[in-house]
């Protein structure tokens, strides 16, 4: 790769903390801005995390409110609303409203104490006090998801809900909204995914509540890439043309294929029992055709981030590696004999497809540390390149196996008065560089 740009200084300097306001839970007119005593802020998003999480550390000095400390004067003891706003060095704002879980003091002095506030999203707090007692009629799962987000989690965030192809009837049964959303995620199938793929991710970012199919995250037509990032060693290495900036650190790992096989990433079997006619049915799925003689259905080729879907040694696959057993709910929802005989959900195909897909998406993983970038969120697509380890390092050849498209599985924004950094865990379901870092 030719160095076509001057060395870019890593924009990891301190952010502009605009506000960090705590509002009393009993009197909303009582507020205190603790940005002045700011020490450290960590903010977390993940596709495997129902709600956003954060921690805020500040020095709680006297005369903060009513000539007292925040802890005593507000008072601050958990349940308060915390509003935070900061801008990174590219002037992108991170603005969130969260709930204080508890307070922890690290040290006590006569003039001040260091306080850590564990923070959770409002939806996370509401979920613990909300039970779902509702019958969900036969509608698309995506419609049920919107109802849970708005009517039960009471979110005011933008809803990013991908339409599902399959319908479902369900009783709330006094369960929590998060529980039902994650249950729906395992049973959801995207439009066009019939017989090919299934499984959704439900999670929250600072801006949205998201319920989208696994495949849509890896499809660049539906999930436009946010950044092209390169890791090339040495502070004097320039940022090649087409990349946004350099990663500060980089490490990679691949999933344990033996563990993936055990969890059903390559072959699964589903045994269902129909209480109406007492019939048992076994369905076997496989990602590779002709591995097993009694495979009911070979999963068709999927749209992947890399060139090749994660595979396994076919000689080691002698039988399905994971079996699920489920009772069909025929007869549960029907008002008529015809409705009672309808199968509400296809465990054999959809549920087992989602099991396989969930176990494939973490096949390849890359961890990088970059300059603070508040525009990035969990689920965003990133193009990442690293140099190929070679004896002659002057060529800086790209690693064709590691490089390519990834999605952000989790991120952490780390802010102190001196620096702003973002840690990204990138994942994909495949290997091999596909596409180009300059394509947008």
State the total count of DSSP E strands: 26
Radius of gyration: 25 Å
**Residue windows where pLDDT falls under 50 for at least 5 positions:** 1-9
What is the structural class? Answer: mainly beta
**SS field, number of helical segments:** 8
Compute the separation of the termini in Å.
Answer: 19 Å
Percent of residues in beta strands = 35-45%
**What is the mean predicted local confidence, pLDDT?**
85
Helix content: 10-25%
What sort of overall outline do the alpha carbons produce when their principal axes are compared?
flat
Biggest pleated sheet: 15 strands, mixed
Describe the fold and architecture.
The chain is mostly beta strands. It contains eight helices and 26 strands. It has helices spanning about 70-75, 120-125, 140-150, 175-185, 215, 255-260, 335-340, 345-360, and strands at about 15-25, 30-35, 40-45, 55-60, 80-85, 95-100, 105-110, 110-120, 135-140, 160, 165-170, 200-205, 210-215, 225-230, 245, 250-255, 265-275, 280-285, 295-300, 310, 320-325, 365-370, 380-385, 405-415, 420-430, 430. It has a 15-stranded mixed beta sheet that branches. Strands 19-18-17-21 form a four-stranded mixed beta sheet, covered by helices on one side. A three-stranded mixed beta sheet has the order 10-13-12. Helix 3 packs antiparallel against helix 4 (about 175-185). The longest helix has 14 residues, at about 345-360.
């Amino acid at each position: 790769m030719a160095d076509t740009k001057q060395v870019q200084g890593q924009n990891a300097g301190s952010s502009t903390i605009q506000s960090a306001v705590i509002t009393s839970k009993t009197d909303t007119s009582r507020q205190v801005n603790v940005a002045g005593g700011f020490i450290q802020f960590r903010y977390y998003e993940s596709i495997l995390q129902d709600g956003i999480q954060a921690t805020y550390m500040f020095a709680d000095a006297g005369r903060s409110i009513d000539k007292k400390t925040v802890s005593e004067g507000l008072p601050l003891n958990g349940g308060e609303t915390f509003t935070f706003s900061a801008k990174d060095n590219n002037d992108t704002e991170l603005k969130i409203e969260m709930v204080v879980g508890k307070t922890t003091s690290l040290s006590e002095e006569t003039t001040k104490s260091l306080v850590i506030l564990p923070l959770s999203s409002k939806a996370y707090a509401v979920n613990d006090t909300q039970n779902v007692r509702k019958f969900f009629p036969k509608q698309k799962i995506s419609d049920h998801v919107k109802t849970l987000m708005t009517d039960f989690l009471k979110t005011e965030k933008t809803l990013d809900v991908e339409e599902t192809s399959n319908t479902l009837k369900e009783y709330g049964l006094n369960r929590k909204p998060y529980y039902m959303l994650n249950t729906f995620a395992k049973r959801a199938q995207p439009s066009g995914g019939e017989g090919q793929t299934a499984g959704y991710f439900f999670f929250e970012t600072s801006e949205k509540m998201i319920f989208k199919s696994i495949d849509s995250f890896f499809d660049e037509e539906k999930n436009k890439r946010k950044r092209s990032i390169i890791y090339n060693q040495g502070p004097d290495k320039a940022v090649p043309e087409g990349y946004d900036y350099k990663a500060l650190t980089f490490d990679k790992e691949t999933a344990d294929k033996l563990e993936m096989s055990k969890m059903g990433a390559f072959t699964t079997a589903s045994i269902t029992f129909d209480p109406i006619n007492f019939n048992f049915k076994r369905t076997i799925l496989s990602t590779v055709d002709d591995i097993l003689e009694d495979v009911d259905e070979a999963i068709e080729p999927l749209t992947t981030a890399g060139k090749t879907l994660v595979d396994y040694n076919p000689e080691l696959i002698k039988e399905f590696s994971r079996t699920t057993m489920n009772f069909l709910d025929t007869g549960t929802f029907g008002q008529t004999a015809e409705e009672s005989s309808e199968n509400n959900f296809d465990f054999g195909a959809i549920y087992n497809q989602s099991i396989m897909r969930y176990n494939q998406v973490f096949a390849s993983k890359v961890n990088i540390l970059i300059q603070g970038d508040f525009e990035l969120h969990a689920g965003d697509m990133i193009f990442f390149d690293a140099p190929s380890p070679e004896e002659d390092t002057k060529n800086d050849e790209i690693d064709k196996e590691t490089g390519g498209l990834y999605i952000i599985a989790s991120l952490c924004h780390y802010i102190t008065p001196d620096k702003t950094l973002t840690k990204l865990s990138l994942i994909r379901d495949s290997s091999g560089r596909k596409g180009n870092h300059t394509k947008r």
